[in-house]
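Dear Dr. L.,

I hope this message finds you well. Following up on our conversation about the binding site, I have prepared a predicted three-dimensional model of the protein together with S-adenosyl-L-homocysteine. For your records, I am including the exact sequence and ligand specification that went into the calculation, followed by the structure tokens. Please feel free to forward this to your student if that is useful.
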Amino acid sequence: MKETLLDILCCPLDKAELELEVIREDDEEILEGRLICTECGEEYPIEDGIPNLLPPDMRDEATA
Amino acid sequence: MKETLLDILCCPLDKAELELEVIREDDEEILEGRLICTECGEEYPIEDGIPNLLPPDMRDEATA
Amino acid sequence: MNVATEFDSWAAEGRDRGMEERHWHTAKHVLARMPVEAGETVLDLGTGSGYALRALRETRSAGQCYGLDGAPEMLRNARDYTDDDAIGFVRGDFDALPFATDSVDHVFSMEAFYYAQNPIQTLREIRRVLRPGGTFYCAVNYYEENVHSHVWQENISIEMTRWSAPEYRDAFREAGLFVAGQENVPDTETEIPDESAFPTEEWEARAAMVERYRELGTLLTVGVAPS
Amino acid sequence: MNVATEFDSWAAEGRDRGMEERHWHTAKHVLARMPVEAGETVLDLGTGSGYALRALRETRSAGQCYGLDGAPEMLRNARDYTDDDAIGFVRGDFDALPFATDSVDHVFSMEAFYYAQNPIQTLREIRRVLRPGGTFYCAVNYYEENVHSHVWQENISIEMTRWSAPEYRDAFREAGLFVAGQENVPDTETEIPDESAFPTEEWEARAAMVERYRELGTLLTVGVAPS
Ligand SMILES: Nc1ncnc2c1ncn2[C@@H]1O[C@H](CSCC[C@H](N)C(=O)O)[C@@H](O)[C@H]1O
Ligand SMILES: Nc1ncnc2c1ncn2[C@@H]1O[C@H](CSCC[C@H](N)C(=O)O)[C@@H](O)[C@H]1O
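The resulting structure of the complex is given below.
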């Protein structure tokens, strides 16, 4: 996903802003990374260009 | 027109409330009368059960 | 008054009932989409024969209903056709609505809006009389994309507003209404004769008639009054 | 997560594309009614194959588009089908939307809303993320009046909400959305075989199939966020 598209994403729990940590990107988009809530510190993974913003209690370890 | 239906009618010019003067009615409704603006005093005729609430400058004498 | 002169003669010639019959093809679909709840107040702008209000009373148990028109003969006929104490007819003009602020739940208008002398003023008036969240269902057959309607102006003395679909959306917003949706409601009922019947008096080609009725149909723009 | 388990297998079996094809019969009409202006932001809840966003980008020049889904395989497929930098896919749940307040112009959802665990909470979330005057186009085939859909619950492990049309309107209002309109969008494209073919595996009588597709079709409820 393009970095510009991340702008309106927020933490599903407290709706606070997220900070981006890039792990892998190509010319176009972020492929792997982390979105970290600036309020509660919860971490949301980006994998294969898709951020996983499920609330932590709904995240199944197998796929997240 | 039924008296209850007159409730939300107002003066087309200043949107003030209207006062009803009944000239002729039957068991069901007002047939002839006048609606008088409580603000500007403009008079609007009711004829054959139909109030004429055209702004005065659009009222043609022939039909009003 | 222009409107009275023009439309009183239509009413006298029975064109009020003729319009009702033709407009019903699409008006019934427009009315069916309106979120009118039992007991709600509805205003019909340019009510003509008054059919829309009778339908909303019968099928949706609408509450108090007001049919406004500028032409006294239209109103006299409409009153004759209506046997319902909850429906009242009022003579008035689109640009100076004689209804209290916040007093109406829904406004409907079929094939009438574009006769307003100052359509933006009419939209502002509609916004004023609607309660927050109230809807305006504005249906027209005369509009820019319907090229087959452009000639209508030649046969009428009142200047008609010919907006495109995007212009309707812009104007609603300019007057302070939210735009909730827009669509072309096709008329699937007007009979279109076989290819061999064309050209007819009115239609050069069958394809044009198909486009007019089955594709373009009635342009509906839905506005919502903000809080 | 329930949704992932259920819908990942659908995606793996190619049912995402199958749904796209069937849902498109009515979804295209729903999308056509949305007042999406060029550059506006659209959110698709339960995006499946992502077709709705691709269509709104191509036909309406929508701006940034977000497809949210709970099933990772659906999202992986959707991403594969999409070659457009302005469309992003996000894993998330309807009841806890990961979008900032007031950040979205329009929300679309086809055949997905009723899977929400807490549909009123989902509606509140939609209201929160929509800007004032933003619209929610909520389209469902599973609803009370569509009696032919009632059996679907038997084949799925997720509990589905089966509201009637008036219940949809009430719920929208309860969550603070204005109701701008509601309608049944008929599916005129699903082929209905000749009388002689009935009963089929799925349909006892032809009349039932006609009712399901041509009359009931997709229930669309349109909400608008207040100021
Ligand atoms: N400025 C104005 N103010 C009030 N009524 C107007 C008007 N301009 C036109 N009208 C009325 O609008 C109507 C348009 S004809 C449409 C009638 C009806 N809605 C139908 O669908 O058949 C006429 O009855 C005409 O008298
Ligand atoms: N609670 C929830 N949160 C997020 N996504 C959900 C969900 N419940 C169901 N979904 C998703 O909603 C989709 C329903 S299938 C419909 C897909 C698509 N809109 C179409 O018209 O074809 C599935 O992809 C499923 O994974």
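In brief: The pocket of S-adenosyl-L-homocysteine (ligand 1) is lined by residues C 3, 7, 19-20, 23, 27, 46-48, 69-71, 74, 93-94, 110-112, 115-116 (CB under 6 Å).

With kind regards,
A. P.
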